[in-house]
Amino acid sequence: MKGMPDERDRNRYAEIFEHAPIARLITDADGTIHEANRHAARLLEVRADSVVGTPLATFVSDEDRPAFVKQLLAVGGTTQPTTWLMWVRAKPEKAPFRAEVHVVASQSEVGSLHWAITDVTWRTAMEQELRMLTSELETRVEERTREVEAERARLAAVIEQIPAGLTIVGPDGAVITANAVARRLLGGRLEDAFEEGRTDLQSDDGRYVALDVSIAPIIDAEGKRVGEIRLFHDVSARDQQERAEREFVSNAAHQLQSPLAGILSAIEVLQAGAKDGPDREVFLGHIERETNRLARLARALLTLARAQTGYEAPKDELVALEPLLSDIAGSLRTVNGVEVKVACPPTLAVVTNRELVEQAVVNVAENASKYTVQGQIRLEASRDGDAAKIVVTDTGRGIDRKDTDRVLERFYRAAGNGADGFGLGFAIVRSAVSALDGDLELKSEPGVGTTVTIRLPRAASMVEA
Length: 465
Hints:
- By secondary structure, this protein is an alpha+beta fold.
- It is 41% helix and 26% strand.
- It contains eleven helices and 18 strands.
- The chain has helices spanning 3-18, 38-44, 65-75, 121-161, 180-186, 236-271, 280-309, 321-331, 354-371, 401-404, 425-435, and strands at 23-28, 33-36, 82-88, 97-105, 112-119, 165-169, 175-178, 197-202, 208-219, 225-234, 317-320, 339-343, 348-352, 376-384, 387-394, 439-445, 449-456, 459-461.
- The strands form four sheets. It has a five-stranded antiparallel beta sheet with strand order 2-1-5-4-3. It has a five-stranded antiparallel beta sheet with strand order 7-6-10-9-8.
- The protein is rod-shaped and about 165 Å long.
């Protein structure tokens, strides 16, 4: 009676073993097959009864056989199940297949090993393909990420190179991106709301800034507004230029009225009978002075226009500098006591345009005579390598530091220079020197004087008679 349950259990186990949905084998500790179910026989392409006594290693591919033996020895020393992959070959002429092997030592039969073998060729192929696809996807993602980063870097570079201030604002009004120009122009007001059009700001350093603001919406694929692009053009310089030009026109008109009125008055007096009287020379002298003033303004404007537009290319000739400087020095009207000196080698010359270089030096020298009330004015020329250097030095009142850089601008008049100037003297000098491919340098110290250096290329020497 006691043996009946054991018999039934064995029969039940045998039935389960035989009809298991996967290949099942029982071997001894050396891997010799004792039992094989029908799935195992089908997988190994043998009859179940003929495989008994055959070493399982017979069906392992040559390259995996050493690993199989090693695993077999390891399984014998543990009760824990072991799983690994190996290549199995049913017959020598057959292609091997990938198998997942699961083995565990029997707890009821010492030295007995229970095996489960599954053909995972398809699964392995799918896993390998999945790994390949995953690897390819990762590669593409990395490539696309690099492309996006490159595009972002190019976009950032383009935004930074835009000469106007640019900000990109999100839907909540927060600034997402701002280039260096925008940060410089707006400073602490970068997050402020702006309306399109003209706006005036005071920068963090207290400087007046006039901005022309343009705003464009950012629309997503669904037509929803998700932000905006703001463009800030600094029009301060343009405003200052327009203001300076308006002031110039106003000043020039005012200055033209005075000499014209004086000339007309003198002509009327002369026509009324003073042309033969003792005051004739006085009125003629008045007409001459005012006429010269008008001529000076006309020449200044014409010279500036020609030099800046390049309408007429300068014609070069050999210009002797000593007689040129002497003539200019002799024509200067200075205050009594102011000495004018010329220092120049008699043979020094330069290949340049006489009219432009003369106009440049005349303007510098006349400016020196205008603001020098004591001391001296010195006109010097010397050779500087392949160039000729002309230096005009005065002991006048000098120019304030805040005006030194701006006196070379058109229409700019330094404070305290009186109302009879047009702001064109040094602008003409700069334009003339530039047209001659020369260099201009101005140094000044209030109360000490001013030194202007003109350096012209192509120095030459006159042949002494």
